């Protein structure tokens, strides 16, 4: 059998996964493979999985079936968090040829080349997650508007609901120098915005290797990284994807407030507005600290957008506990919520906790916070009507339209002007349309520093 010449990818989950899929794609390209759309029937399919939701198994099976429908003889390779956590489960999915763990996925070509000689399907190459000590640089291309740049991986936190440390290993980071080089390479492609990604982004600076059983001390902090990136020419915007509230220091907030390129947009996971639950989750802050971070941001940047992650239905969450979270978020000056319904994860401390919340109650709480989120977002948008803000334009899914985000993450919709794609222009925000986007009028093109 000749070496496969085409490859297609499918990515589930977070921005970090998208950055890694893109980097794996470049490995295939350098080896002579041709990347084609998923539906065109590739010789090799690579599925990058996620373990955040409890539907990982169903989603993976569906994607495998879709791939084989397009190319019945294709080789199917599964990587990602779900692949590390439950490799044997994936290997038993009909059609899967190879499952690679966290330490093996970036050596994917070493394994793929031998698939034609394999005696059977469902091979597993997923070692202990502790073997994933090395940091592998990754960033996404394909969308000229923005790139997801991975600067940190793994996590040393021990949140009781989370499997990420089991799937990705200990916290480790790139160097400031390498991140800057990657940012410059991205700039050369004409990308206007870089989104910094990681599992625990604010923990940037951990070493990438263990020497005689001792992990090196941090050589740099997240503040050092963003100061260096702020000097990179050719990138108009840097956006911080998510940062823990205990790591979102006053120094970081003050820097963003006066930055040339870092936009006024913070996404900070809260998970619960109840100190009892934060303690049970083993979060590293109390709600008062979270409130103080929000206050600091809004004092220095009243126009800043603040997003929040929150979990409903965690074991032991009573009606009163949930209402405390609801009222805390209601009075908090935040812009939108990402609401997650708690789902049990084997091998996590929360899995065996008492006080299980029934699923109907979990869903009802999710619905209440989702409605609150829409109200928060609408109010945030409404506050900015009549203002002029810079918008980075991109193709809209709607025919004859283009869309884009302001620096402070307001979604704007305008009539399509193809020549304006991937440009930043000042837009007067006029009204909120029926689907929750802001309509506006272009004012002028902004002069960007070369």
Description:
It is built from 13 helices and 20 strands. It has 450 residues and is an alpha/beta fold. The strands form five sheets. The chain has a six-stranded parallel sheet, sandwiched between helices. Helix 5 links the parallel strand 5 and strand 6. Helix 7 packs parallel to helix 8 and helix 9 runs parallel beside helix 11. The radius of gyration is 22 Å and the shape is globular.
| Main pleated-sheet profile | 6 strands, parallel
- Strand portion: 15-25%
- The helix tally amounts to 13
Structural class: alpha/beta
Strand order of the largest sheet: 2-1-3-4-5-6
Q: Identify low-pLDDT runs.
A: none
Radius of gyration: 22 Å
Helix content: 25-40%
Distance between the amino and carboxyl termini: 50 Å
Shape: globular
Mean pLDDT: 90
Number of strands: 20
Keywords:
450 residues; alpha/beta; 20 strands; 31% helix
Secondary structure layout plus pairing:
Layout: E1 6-11, H1 15-30, E2 34-35, E3 44-49, H2 56-70, E4 75-80, H3 81-85, H4 87-91, E5 98-100, H5 108-112, E6 123-125, E7 138-139, E8 146-150, E9 152-153, H6 164-168, E10 172-173, H7 176-188, E11 193-197, H8 222-229, E12 237-240, H9 250-258, E13 265-271, H10 275-281, H11 287-300, E14 305-312, H12 319-331, E15 336-341, H13 359-383, E16 388-395, E17 401-406, E18 411-415, E19 424-432, E20 438-445
Parallel strand pairs: 1-2, 1-3, 3-4, 4-5, 5-6, 8-11, 11-12, 13-14, 14-15, 18-20
Antiparallel strand pairs: 7-8, 9-10, 16-17, 16-19, 17-18, 19-20
